[in-house]
Structures are given as C-alpha cells and as structure tokens.
Amino acid sequence: MIILKKLNPKKDISDKYVNWMNDKSVHPFSVQKFTKHTKKKVKKYVEKINSTKNIFLYGIFLKQKTSLNHIGNIKLGPIHKYYKSSHISYFIGEKEYLKKGYATKAIKMIIQIARQKKVKKLKAGIVEINHGSIKVVKNNGFKKEATLISEEQHGNKRYNSLIFGKVL
Predict the structure, then answer these.
(1) Residues with Cβ < 8 Å from 33, sequence gap 6 or more?
(2) Which of 16, 45, 152, 159 has the fewest beta carbons under 10 Å from its own?
(3) Residue 19, domain extent
(4) pLDDT for 28 beyond 90
(5) Which burial class, exposed, middle or buried, applies to 107 when counting CB atoms under 10 A from its CB (0-12, 13-18, 19+)?
(6) 3-class SS letters over the chain
(7) pLDDT tens across 78-133, in order?
(8) Domains contained in the chain, number
(9) Distance between CA 68 and CA 34 in Å, rounded?
C-alpha cells in the first residue's frame, strides 16, 4: 500500500533521495539529469515548493509494517488560478519498485487530490520513447492531446514530446 505525503525538508531529504536525483537512470527523460543535486539544493527546492499556494509536492511512500519507505515523488502544479488546470510529474526513485504499479496508484491518488483542490484538467508531458510513463497515464484515463515535434533531445537524437490530458 502506498500513501502520498507532503515532503518535509527536514525529515524526508535523505542521501537516498539526493542519490535518486543524481542518478541519470532514474531520470533518463527528465531535465533533472542536467543538474548536480546536493542535499542543500534539494531541501531549498522542497522548501520553495512548500511555500507556494499552487504547487504541491508529495513523496510516494510505501507502507511497510511499522515504517514508511520513501520510493518516489509526485508533483501537482502549478495550478492555473483561472483555468483550474495543472501539470503533473512523477518518478519512482527506488528501482526495485519500478514496474510494480506504484506510479499508476500515485497518479490515481493525485487525481483525487486535484479534485479536492477544484482542478478541472490535468496534463502530463512525456517524451515518446518513455513507454512506461505513457502506459501509466493511459491506465489513469489520460488521452493523448498533442505532439510537439522534435521537442527533446536524448543522446544525439531528437524526439517528440507527447501531451496527455485528463478532464476531471
């Protein structure tokens, strides 16, 4: 069973978390791979996000007997003040928990949180070669709405970025 919990910069920013952020195999399709992350930078980022009123960052925690194991993150926002639309982004940092359905469950949960926040539309941008992430959003009822041609570069090759959306 997983739970989503707002990240606490003092308690939840572990060496393990910083290692995920620096591991290019965790973020092969994200701009995170271009940044060198430190504990200080990650804490500052979480503090900044937590101080906003329209961006919400949650840890994905796996409940195990008497403890919670932080296995990834999911972000909702920014929520557009007038249009009530928002982006989502997510990752599973603990590789042993990839392809186990946890990202799918986390998105189901973030959809409920978005509804509570009166969000009417969710969007996710995914590079066309990220088949796992495409499957995750489709499993949550997102539909492909747009293709941004040659939007991203990975290695020496250009790829399309796909925009998926879900009306809530």
Answers:
(1) 24, 27
(2) 16
(3) 2-119
(4) no
(5) buried
(6) CEEEEECCCCCCCCHHHHHHHHCCCCCCCCHHHHCCCCHHHHHHHHHHHHCCCCCEEEEEEEEECCEEEEEEEEEEEEECCCCCEEEEEEEECCHHHCCCCHHHHHHHHHHHHHHHCCCCEEEEEEECCCHHHHHHHHHCCCEEEEEEEEEEEECCEEEEEEEEEEEC
(7) 999 999 999 999 999 999 999 999 999 999 999 999 999 999 999 999 999 999 99
(8) 1
(9) 30
The burial class, CB within 10 Å (0-12 / 13-18 / 19+), for 94 is middle
Compute and round to an integer the Cα radius of gyration of the chain. 16
Answer yes or no: is 36 within a domain: yes
